[in-house]
Amino acid sequence: MNSHSLIRSAIVDLGSNSVRLVVFEGRERNPVIIFNEKATLRLGSGLDTTRRLNPKGVTLAEDVFKRFYAVATTMGADPFVVLATAAVRDALDGEEFIKKLNQWMPNVPVHILTGEQEADYAAAGVLCSIPNADGVVADIGGGSMELVQLSEKKRFNAQTLPLGVIRLTDRSERKLAKAKAIASKDLKTVEWLTEVKKKTLYLVGGAFRAMAQLYIEYTSYPLSIVHYFTLPYEEAKRMVEWTIEKSKGGVNNIPTFIHKRLNDLPYAATVLEQLLSRLKPTQIVFCAEGVREGWYMRNVVSENVRDQDPQEAAAMDICERLGRVKEFPLALMQWTGSLFKNEDMDMKRLRWNACLISDASYHDHPAYRKEQSYHRILCMAGMAFDHPTRAFLALTTAMRYEAGVDEPFLMPSRKILTHKQFEQAVVLGMAFRVAYTLSGNLPSLLLRTRLKVGKKKLTLYFSHHLDAVISDAVTRRLTRLGQSMGLETQLLPDHDDA
Predict the structure, then answer these.
(1) CA distances (Å), origin 425, targets 59, 302, 342, 417, 448
(2) What would the pLDDT profile of 51-104 be if each residue is shown by its tens digit?
(3) How far, CA to CA in Å, does 91 sit from each of 86, 87, 150, 334?
(4) What is the DSSP string of 406-420?
(5) pLDDT exceeding 90 applies to what percent of the chain?
(6) What is d(CA 131, CA 129) in angstroms, rounded to the nearest whole number?
(7) What range(s) does the Ppx/GppA phosphatase N-terminal domain occupy (predicted)?
(8) Distance in angstroms (rounded) separating the CA atoms of residues 67 and 38
């Protein structure tokens, strides 16, 4: 068991629309969520008119916070904090509400975030899983929307606007045309947006995520994971138009968890429409990590852990938990190094992560191993991997466990990956199959053989001491690897072997 596995941290994100308790376990690079519960209070409803928190929400809050307190304290979470955002910081009775919180949750610090702090934590949350993010983060809540510029792993500009979905609904008197004018006017006050046109727009917040989930369902996208769901500019415009149009006539057959967001979606879409018009981003990327993860990374995780590559850290964790021989991935990385000519850094990184997770399904039942391994990697929890990376690693692992290239369950990888990426994943997975059969998961045995890719032939050289391990299974799997590369195969003693 990991020595950090029972170290827990709890964060209550108190927003204008909902309140959520998240409990993280460990102190790793990729936050592991072991508890996640949300309640809709809509504390910010009517705030723009009354300047006070929604009385119904305040009444409902007591039971919610008492439950959250019981859960987090029983789990032994430390630190345990409340992060309050727009509704509480803007309401005249915000401090009065905090006093009630202190009674319901004794000894739990309550931080009322300024708009700039909220933006800063949202940016840190995006960087948690997308460390090379370059563009603008838009984090929409119920009471406000934070805009942040990111470049070179740093935050340069930040601004908060009263464009949260609840507040915009109130300000516009539930008229979308008026909401559009308000959003356009507010965004014009953010002068630095002119400096970041044609970059990526990263979208954070429940209303944006609900919009993405609906569009995933509508387009039959093969992976129902909002985090890292990416759309080019023109497709993003179509999504906005579709969302606004569908909201006029009602939306049927939608996931249950989106029902409470339905009234907010047209206002979130209207804000996004104006962001697209102003920024004309090359693409939009939905991000499920925001203020909570940002606070966790800034206040809980050590700096040396923060500096780790999130994808490598996630793959390394899978290797340590599920792999049999921890040294084998490094040997496998060396052994497969000749397979891809002119390999760029992105492909090398993919290959290394694939090596790390290549033994992840050894403990599954052999009859189900190929499909089980595929879905384990494709749909794994956590935020480190974008969709093409998930599809590539899942396909590679399935091929290692003898999947056929035409198996129906591999369809998500066919739809997400380019033809070249699909072929590379197949080749790598088949190479893994040869390596594990040949070596029995022993690094020293594997590295006494080597692959050489020629113009017409793929050759497996082996030490003269290894004649006995060159079995029919090795020969057969090497032949299949060669066929996937369009090459003949041969096995030869390695005369260069010392």
Answers:
(1) 55, 34, 16, 10, 24
(2) 999 999 999 999 999 999 999 999 999 999 999 999 999 999 999 999 999 999
(3) 8, 6, 30, 60
(4) T-GGGHHHHHHS-HH
(5) 83
(6) 6
(7) 22-299
(8) 11
Could you tell me the domains of the chain? 8-112 (3.30.420.40), 116-292 (3.30.420.150), 310-493 (1.10.3210.10)
Q: Which amino acid is at 36?
A: N
With CA atoms as reference, report the closest residue to 150 among 123, 116, 190, 187.
123
Q: Which pLDDT band holds residue 466 (cuts at 50, 70, 90)?
A: low
Residue 330 pLDDT > 70: yes
CB-CB contact of 155 with 116 (8 Å): no
Q: Is 87 exposed, middle or buried (CB count within 10 Å of its CB: 0-12, 13-18, 19+)?
A: buried
When mean pLDDT is compared over 263-267, 278-282, 307-311, the highest value belongs to 278-282
Q: Residue 10: in which H helix or E strand, if any?
A: strand 8-14
Interval 135-167: pLDDT, tens: 999 999 999 999 999 998 888 899 999 999 999
- Residue pair 153/131 in contact by the 8 Å Cβ criterion: yes
Tally of CB atoms within 10 A around 249:
7
| Residue 440 vs residues 365, 446, 473: alpha-carbon distances, Å | 18, 8, 12
CB 73 within 8 A of CB 80: yes
